[in-house]
Amino acid sequence: MKNFLSNNYLRFSLILIGGIFLGWLFFHSSAKTEDKHNHTTEIAKGTIWTCSMHPQIRMAEPGKCPICGMDLIQLNQSGTTTDPDAIQMTKESAQLANVLTSVVSKQNPVKDIRLYGKVQADERLLQSQVSYLPGRIEKLFVNFTGEVVRKGQTLALIYSPELVTAQQELLETVTTKSTQPVLYEAAKDKLRQWKLTESQIASIESSGKVKTDFEVFANTSGIVSARRVNNGDYVSPGSVLFDVVDLSHIWIMFDAYESDLPYLSQGQKVTFTIQALPGTDYSGNISFIDPVLDPVTRVAKVRIEMNNQGGKLKPEMFATGVVNANLNQYKGKLVIPRSAVLWTGKRSVVYVKQAGNDNPVFKIREIELGPMLGNSYVVEKGLSDGEEIVTQGAFSVDASAQLEGKPSMMNPKDGQTNTMPGMDMPAPAKPAKNASPAVKITSASVQKATFKVSGNCEMCKDRIEEAAKSVKGVSTADWNVKTKIVVLEYNSKLTSVDAIQKAISRAGHDTGKYKASDKVYSALPACCLYRK
């Protein structure tokens, strides 16, 4: 062993090997520690876990949401924006979410007003055929409703004892008319009062015989709408025998809701179709608007007059009309699509695209809206000409903003106050000692509700939606004709589902909880009667 250690070469070799081993051990441990430190720092810095239902929850590692128990998801922090309130999306994510934008521009707003109504007879052409003679109906020449009559046509024969006596008086005065002309003229005037013509009086005078049956002539042309007598009936002067209507000129009577009346005026053109005559378009001008609303249906009558050549348009046919009303008071205003607006009760917001970025960057903005133009809105305040807004996929953009804890539709401002241990994140409020384990978190008072409403047609749809929107606090209402389900969005601080159902039932439509009164229901148009 002494000899072995006394060898200098061997001793230096052992020292060299030991130094190399100690150097490797030191530097390897330091590099591993540094790598581990850097990896941990990267995880802590770049990975945040949040809840899709409660985006205010932020955690440093995966787990369960402390509020609802759902699995946490990784927060996307890939992009950075100059504006801390803006939401940045990648081009790929915007394309997958089907986010589309368009440039805001000034337009001349045109409001499409849809009207529903019926064909009716011109009230000015309705006439009653009456009897001017007292007596008995001996024979009717018009026997059924709907028969066509012409002016001067014989309608019936009447036997009148009073007229027989008057004829005898005339014949007696004929022999003395040269000596007593006054009596002769008085006898003739008596017959004239019963609407006998001069030719009939002359025929009686020349024949010298009393006529027992006298004709009743039609004084107008048209269609018999009602027959009020039968053979053998006794009638008095003024008794109605037939109702006759002339359908060569008819009315189209539309129902206009009170919210549409400010945009309607006499002389406006109305394009309409008849349900029984598909493929044919008609048009006419508004000739009259009823100044008084129906207290039950809350509509006013709008009338169009037109000729009815060939009699194709028949009373009680259903008609659907459209009025393109030019809103001159909003001329030059901005117009945006209806799909771009997000409703939050009293607030309406849109997402505006920020210029000067490679990736899509959007920021929420509250705007003030004017009247609705079918599928678009007039913008009063909040946008400028030339700005680019999200017109499709606004809910996807809003969802991304909520997940990143930025201002959104339901969270206009960041309300974070408490922090989780080890992170500057909000902590959920601790439940009360005897509280239920389920904690309800409400970020706004806007709620949605669905329930069944009875109805048949598009007229019912408009009536149901108007009745729901008339309740203060209801922002949107959509009733489906096939499913009979209405979808509502309302402010729970201003109204309730119970109040909305009451308003709809007062308009004439049964809900799952309330039934419309028989009086209101019977006043609905025939196409809207849904009860069997």
Walkthrough of the structure:
The strands form 7 sheets. Strands 4, 6, 21, 22, 23, 24 and 25 form a 7-stranded antiparallel sheet that branches. A 6-stranded antiparallel beta barrel has the order 7-16-19-18-17-20. It has a 4-stranded antiparallel sheet with strand order 8-15-13-10, with no helix packed on it. It has helices at residues 2-6, 8-46, 91-96, 161-174, 181-193, 198-207, 394-403, 458-469, 497-506, 518-522, and strands at residues 49-50, 58-59, 73-74, 87-88, 100-103, 105-107, 110-121, 126-130, 135-140, 148-149, 154-159, 213-217, 222-227, 234-235, 240-245, 249-257, 269-274, 277-289, 299-307, 318-326, 333-337, 342-344, 347-353, 361-372, 376-381, 388-392, 446-452, 474-479, 485-491. Helices cover 23% and strands 32% of the residues. Helix 4 runs antiparallel to helix 5 and helix 8 crosses helix 9 (497-506). It folds into 5 domains: 13-46; 87-109 and 330-403, Beta Barrel (conserved putative lor/sdh protein from methanococcus maripaludis s2 fold); 114-122 and 247-326, Efflux pump adaptor protein, beta barrel domain (Elongation Factor Tu (Ef-tu), domain 3, Beta Barrel), CATH 2.40.30; 123-245, Beta Barrel (OB fold (Dihydrolipoamide Acetyltransferase, E2P)), CATH 2.40.50.100; 446-528, Alpha-Beta Plaits, CATH 3.30.70. It has 10 helices and 29 strands. Residues 30-45 and 414-444 have low confidence and may be disordered. With 532 residues, the protein is of the alpha+beta class.
Key phrases:
Elongation Factor Tu (Ef-tu), domain 3; 6-stranded antiparallel barrel; 5 domains; rod-shaped; 29 strands; 23% helix; 32% strand; single chain; 532 residues; alpha+beta; conserved putative lor/sdh protein from methanococcus maripaludis s2 fold
